[in-house]
Amino acid sequence: VAPDGATARRWAAELRRLPEVRSVRTTDDLVPADQQEKLALIEDLNLLLGGGIADLERTPEDPAALAAAVGALEEASRNEPSAAALHGALVELGARLQKAGNDERAAVLAPLEEALTAGLPRELAKLDAAFGAQEFGRGDLPEALRARWLASGGRELVEIAPAEDVSDNGAARRFIGAVKDVVPTATGLPVVYQEASATVLSAFGRALTYAFVMVTLLIWIVLRDLKDVLLVLVPIALATIVTAALTVAIDMPFNYANIIALPLLVGLGVDNGIHVVHRMQAEPVERLFDTSTMRAVLASGLTTVASFGNLAFSPHVGTSSMGVLLALGLAASMSATLIALPSWLTLWARRRTSPR
Q: For the whole prediction, is pTM greater than 0.90?
């Protein structure tokens, strides 16, 4: 919104030079230019047509002439690939005309005649009304337009259209950046969507950080051992990285709905690690896979994966993608806890006991 008309015209002139901008409209664009020349052309056209064209009487159709025109159009469209559909319809109509008698042709051609000429009186009336055009300025704009384009204090709307499809994030960023270089206060749906997206991403980034920090503190309170805390957190971190990588592999980018899977993954995936690490304190690493803890973690993990995986069958696209990512993330977390963590601990134990 420009503070005055002069600023609106200056912004429009600068914005029209940007490759990211397709068009710019201001209040001045609602008032035609060169009105005297255009009014003279309208007057000449009215004189040529004689005026009163909306009062012309409609001549009854001539079935024979219309049938001949259909045949001529059928022949002209025969070798035109772009008119294949039209030619097929004309062939079908021609076959119906051949089967119909002279008295029946009028009934066959009546729908065609109606389709071709039904709107003509209305269009002629609009053209006749246009012959009464008069010169007007900004002050003569209808109230509906004035309410949209002009505000109190002389403020004016400047409408800016992008040259690219702003549903693409990259195109939207280029368009908004170029426009804001000229008009820092520019707003609109592309700006709102980009700012909302940035706010959501920032919020979930903080949510992921807060979840990780709070889980870490709670594990520290329970285990009181830095090594055990790291052993619980490593599978969660690994599962988070793997889940983010899987979004690229399965071509399912993060959106406003499924991005919540990452903070949830931290809270849901920590249980398995705590149980395994707690059992490791009482059992050698080599015997972990023979314990009931590993089987219980496997059963519990599969149950959780199946529970959240049901969301993948939701008809809502966002909810469905959240279910897919949660199922994949929990499966990755369970795999990291049951496979990667014991394997890493076994390798670490062997290195500690091997002679140097």
A: no
